[in-house]
Automatic annotation (TrEMBL):
Major localisation: membrane
Transmembrane segments: 37-59, 65-84, 96-117, 194-214, 226-244, 256-274, 294-319, 339-362, 387-407, 413-435, 455-476, 488-506, 535-553
Organism: Dyadobacter endophyticus
Domain of life: Bacteria
Protein name according to UniProt: Cationic amino acid transporter C-terminal domain-containing protein
Lineage: Bacteria, Pseudomonadati, Bacteroidota, Cytophagia, Cytophagales
Membrane topology type: Multi-pass membrane protein
Cationic amino acid transporter C-terminal domain segment(s): 516-558
Subcellular location: Membrane
Record's keyword terms, sorted: Membrane, Transmembrane, Transmembrane helix, Transport
Length: 563
């Protein structure tokens, strides 16, 4: 990896700051403070995750999923500290893309930027679809029922109808019966059934319009919605505590560690969003000081809320009943508290809207930064003269999110989002090690607390190996039963994890690496090993498409190449 290779040409911090503040496209409005940033972070984190995917995670792992939230939060804290250091060093929009440009060079920056497009766009598709489910449920509470074919994607409806034909109505869940009925009643063009999730598309359109109008309006709307949804979450915790039955917490981990870890994608999806704060760095009044505080504050607040609400949910009903899309409303209905269920349904619509707002805010700013560097077409860097927002990029984001949300199902997108995010998080943690090694960290107004990993990383590596050899007989037996092809297919990431840990042990000894960024790399990489192989295949295809675009346009048009 030669420093002189055009693929790994890097931008200095001074170059990035100069490009951000002297561009011909115009500047962004600097209006955000710590409270606004914390609000945006909570808006992103306490969204579709706590109102929908938390149910599936609890169904798979039981009450022990509360511990998975703690473990995932620890992984996010390591990463958040690394993000905070970068944000204080390079206080511009672009998030992990910009940080990779400084630490690893242009090719890695492009790969991260392309992965972030996947994270933000796909996350918003999930959020929009989840919003639609709660919105339709809320309307039913007011006696308004939308036609089924306007509230569901074609694949889900078709699968439910086919299951009805094979198994009969008695074998279908209530949701599947509604989906099958929607398929049967849908208008047709020839043999094609017209099915679309209209609420998901419309809410994306409305949020995109708000983000287009300006950061001040978006900030005000976000702050109001965050206050409301935190109040609702606290209400759920306090009211639900009176209906907790301790016997529902036994067994605590009914499906063992494997069952708990199967919820990694759903639980991690609940935390995705704290990094979106860093995309608004250029709109902060004092990013070097405010960004680090905001990231840590919102992570601590959200982790406490998640753990408490998971314990309340699994205490109010048996974990086996939580495989539903609206678990918070469901547990109160199950306990005869229909009024509370109605309050939750209404407020969850507002809560999920705020998450949609933050993701829709972050995506255009990453595109804008990539365009400034010449890696995307110039129109993506266009700043609206009146609203001071990246106007063209915001409109494109609306289409990229809104159209798939109209026609696709949610399940598939959750895992795919996590793949791109883990990838970005690992490179940000690795980037901090680079900053420290090159002495660039000296100019950071916030630094990751230094814990010398010279011996610690290697000692923990040997203890982990020793622990598996002593207590992991089941794991060893499982590996022995796999063929070479099966190991490559299902365990390749696990092998990469151990090789990475071994490599980092050696490098930590040689260069006195800080232990916390190393811990961030390893925890994120370990969580990656729990995701399905199919998601990785799609992610690789997505990266291949991105590389074609880079080499056909960005490689030649890059401003570093022009210089």
């Amino acid at each position: 990896m030669s420093q002189n290779s055009p693929l790994f040409r890097k931008k200095t911090v001074d170059q990035i700051l100069k490009d951000a503040h002297s561009g011909s496209e115009g500047g962004l409005a600097k209006v955000l403070g710590v409270r606004d940033l914390v609000s945006l972070g909570i808006a992103a984190i306490v969204g579709a995750g706590i109102f929908s995917t938390i149910g599936l995670a609890s169904y798979n792992g039981g009450p022990a999923v509360s511990l998975l939230f703690v473990f995932t939060a620890i992984a996010c804290v390591f990463t958040a500290l690394s993000y905070a250091q970068f944000a204080s060093t390079v206080p511009v929009s672009g998030s992990a893309y910009t940080y990779a440009y400084v630490a690893f060079g242009e090719l890695f920056a492009w790969i991260i930027g392309w992965a972030l497009i996947l994270e933000y766009a796909v996350s918003n598709m999930v959020v929009a679809i989840s919003w639609s489910e709660y919105f339709v449920s809320m309307l039913k509470g007011f006696g308004i029922t939308l036609p089924g074919w306007l509230t569901i994607n074609g694949e889900t409806a078709r699968e439910a109808f086919q299951k009805l034909q094979v198994s009969g109505a008695a074998q279908l869940s209530d949701y599947e019966r509604v989906a099958a009925a929607a398929y049967e009643s849908a208008p047709m063009i020839g043999d094609f059934h017209i099915l679309l999730n209209l609420p998901a598309g419309l809410v994306t359109l409305l949020i995109t319009a708000l983000v287009y109008i300006g950061i001040r309006e978006s900030r005000t709307a976000s702050n109001i919605m965050v206050v409301l949804k935190v109040a609702v979450v606290l209400l759920v915790i306090l009211a639900g505590a009176f209906y907790v039955k301790p016997e529902n917490w036994s067994p605590f981990a009914p499906n063992g560690v494997k069952g708990v870890l199967s919820g990694v994608a759903a639980v991690f999806f609940a935390f995705i969003g704290f990094d979106s704060i860093s995309t608004t760095a250029e709109e902060c009044r004092n990013p070097q000081q405010d960004m680090p505080k905001a990231m840590i504050y919102c992570l601590v607040i959200c982790t406490v809320l998640y753990v408490l609400i998971t314990l309340v949910l699994t205490g109010m009903v048996n974990y086996t009943e939580l495989k539903v899309s609206d678990p918070l409303a469901f547990v109160f209905q199950k306990n005869g508290l229909d009024f509370m269920a109605g309050v939750i349904s209404v407020s969850s619509v507002i809560a999920i809207t705020s998450a949609l707002l933050v993701y829709q805010l972050g995506q255009p700013r990453i595109w804008m930064t990539m365009s400034r560097d010449g890696l995307l077409w110039k129109r993506f860097a266009k700043i609206h003269p009146k609203y001071q927002t990246p106007s063209f990029a915001t409109i494109v984001t609306g289409f990229v999110v809104g159209i798939p949300a109209l026609f696709f199902k949610m399940d598939f997108f959750v895992d795919l989002t996590s793949v791109g995010t883990f990838f970005a998080f690992i490179l940000v943690c690795g980037g901090v090690l680079y900053l420290d090694h090159k002495g660039i960290s000296a100019r950071s107004k916030f630094r990751v607390p230094y814990i010398n990993g010279k011996y610690l990383v290697g000692i923990l590596f040997f203890l982990a190996i020793l622990g598996i050899l002593t207590y992991g007989q089941g794991i060893i037996l499982e590996w022995r039963m796999l063929s070479f092809t099966e190991i490559i297919e299902h365990k390749l990431l696990t092998i990469i994890f151990w090789i990475t840990w071994c490599t980092l042990s050696i490098l930590s000894y040689q260069h006195n690496f800080s232990a916390l960024p190393v811990a961030g790399i390893l925890t994120n990489l370990y969580l990656m090993t729990e995701l399905g192989a199919s998601n990785w295949l799609i992610f690789v295809i997505w990266l291949a498409i991105g590389l074609v675009i880079y080499f056909s346009y960005g490689y030649k048009q890059s401003k570093l190449a022009q210089k």
